[in-house]
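Sequence in, structure out.
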Amino acid sequence: MEYQYRERQVSPRPDKEFTIGNGRISGYTSIFLGALSLAAVLAYLFPSYLTTTELRAAYDAETLQLILKYGMWFSLFCGIFTFAINKRKRLGFTGIVLTATAFSLGGYVVPVGPVEARPLALGVDWLILAFLGSVIIFTTLEKLFPKYRDQVILRKEWGLDFFYFCLNHLLISVLLLVGNYVVSKLQWAANDDLQSTLQSLPILIQALILIVIADFVLYWEHRFFHEQDKLWPFHAVHHSVETMDWLAGSRSHLGQTIIERSLVMTALYLIGADKAALDIYVTFAALQAIVIHCNLDVPWGPIKYLFVTPQYHHWHHSSEKPAIDTNYAAHTPLFDRLFGTYHMPSKHWPAEYGTTKRLPRTFAGQFLHPFKSLFNSNS
């Protein structure tokens, strides 16, 4: 019997909407900018411990202080404005306190000097820049071109996924250290002739090759996590998301994150592409990972046949029977088509997301879930 696809039902949540006049926009803006400002000031005060060596080379700390200056004053303005309209005073007060604390610690005039490099540091600078950019770009896109117009920004469990977002970015140094360690143990497998041949190609061709190779590795890593009973509980954490948006992709068990990134780093190192090509791939992969989880409905045209898009990946997250264990690819549908795991009903989107058996709804519960599953299976 042919499967009967259904439309997803998203109920309006007027109590959670960001509408003009209710104080929620100014209040949350004050908190958002106040918290980022405080984090930025702490990063300027303790750069060796709270910033990443690799990222510091990509930005000018003094220029970012100018952005910090305007962000702090605008946060203060939004907090005071929230009080003035006599709505959401708690939000306004919280934003003002966060910003005032940032001012008291030195604000945007903390001296910028040389930074002692450390192998391990919390990526506060990476967190700030990634979150600020993601909110501005992807929240705007989701509001301009939503698949589900009634889906609110502060949807259910957004706080849990925000925690995952922060954790993944703060631990960037740990992930890089583990990845580099794995790579160092496999240096014997590198082939100089192969690397020289690849580096002789145009940069864009190199980048395309990296996309295909990385996707091959990610496809099989992803598929193993689905099909192996002892690995699935780790990956099930990512699938426990029941509402899709740009923040949903952050939910991932730390164990799988370490394995996945180490495998990809190793593959890309052994290929030995030019740094410029590697930078293009990393940027492409990071943006695509966010986009494919978005509540976003735009006409992709022929691009959808070449690259993974939101509709394609949303089906991977569906708990409906035809979609289970399909669409493993991260970058292009190529390997799903080759290995028989392709599912893309062009006129339909999923009606249900999540796992068939519901996981715990807290970070601690989800972190311990795979270990409990392993213990129970061995007992």
